[in-house]
Write a structure and sequence with these properties.
By secondary structure, the chain is α+β, with helices and mostly antiparallel strands. It has three domains: about 5-65, no CATH class; about 75-140, no CATH class; about 155-265, 3-Layer(aba) Sandwich (Rossmann fold). It is about 25% helix and about 25% strand. It is built from seven helices and 14 strands. The chain has helices at about 15-25, 50-55, 60-65, 135-140, 165-175, 195-200, 250-265; strands at about 5-10, 30, 75, 80-85, 95-100, 110-115, 130-135, 155-160, 180-185, 205-210, 220-225, 235, 240, 245-250. The chain has a five-stranded antiparallel β-sheet. The longest helix is centred in the C-terminal third of the chain and has 17 residues, at about 250-265. The relative contact order is 0.07.
């Protein structure tokens, strides 16, 4: 095919589906993808309501649904629950709707949903998702520090290169399960500049510690831990002081985080 009618850039789920639709309509199509290897980030791990509608138009939904696992609720963070089975009476919702719950609060913290055609009432239709929170209920779910407690800070920043995205997300989630405050970052740059770029990026976070996943010289079961980040601007012999790197296994780091949380709660 030397002269296609349409060139589709990107061989992801959307690009491939578009190419198939064009081919069914008799349009000569070519798909271009710049990646030569399979990416390490999942782009289509779930099938949403609108996607099922499109597949159903091609008679493909009935064969696909029994192969999947229905998800009626998700837990985006420890103690929080997103109920995807909620029904609402507002006529502008035209897709999934949800409520947000937290343990210890006998009412929803908020709710929202998908309304692709609402903006169209004021102009052009645009895919939209929105939600609202009940501030009174939200305050009831927040653990406020005691008057003499240390100011709330980020316990860990978990950082790594884009190739280690899954490992960064997984470790950050495990630390959060231990009720630690965690921020996750994907760092750009070369392998040689990974650690220095991560330290530079964490300056404004006010974190107690930096965890680098995929640091040079470490295997996949170990991370580089930098503590006492706040003193990195101190100088020794006129030069900026860099925190000492400690090699640590992921399992030991998670266990240490949970142990520190218990010790803090017992004081």
């Amino acid at each position: 095919m030397d002269h296609p009618d349409v060139v589709v850039i990107g061989a992801g789920p959307t690009g491939l589906m578009l190419a198939c639709e064009l081919a069914l309509a008799g349009v000569r199509c070519r798909v271009l993808e710049r990646r030569s290897e399979q990416p390490n980030i999942t782009r289509a791990f779930a099938v949403h309501a609108r996607t099922l509608e499109l597949l159903n138009a091609r008679g493909m939904a009935d064969a696909l649904v029994p192969r999947g696992v229905p998800i009626r609720s998700v837990a985006p963070a420890p103690g929080a629950l997103l109920d995807l089975g909620e029904f609402r009476g507002f006529d502008y919702y035209d897709g999934v709707v949800f409520d947000v719950f937290a343990s210890g609060v006998g009412a929803e913290l908020g709710g929202g949903g998908r309304y692709d055609h609402l903006i169209g009432r004021f102009g052009r239709n645009l895919p939209s998702t929105g939600f609202a929170l009940d501030v009174d209920h939200l305050f009831r779910a927040v653990e406020w520090p005691q008057a003499d407690a240390e100011e709330a800070r980020i316990d860990y920043v978990v950082a790594g290169p884009h190739r280690s995205a899954r490992a960064v997300i997984d470790l950050a989630n495990k630390l959060r399960q231990g009720r630690r405050r965690v921020v996750q970052l994907l760092i750009k740059g070369t392998e040689q500049t990974l650690v220095s770029n991560a330290l530079a990026a964490v300056e404004a976070q006010g974190a107690k510690a930096l965890v680098v996943v995929g640091a040079p010289g470490l295997d996949q079961d170990h991370v580089a831990l930098f503590e006492k980040i706040g003193i990195q601007h101190a100088r020794r012999n006129g030069r900026p002081h860099r925190p000492v790197m400690k090699k640590m296994s992921r399992a030991a780091l998670v266990a240490s985080g949970r142990s520190r949380r218990r010790q803090g709660a017992s004081k």
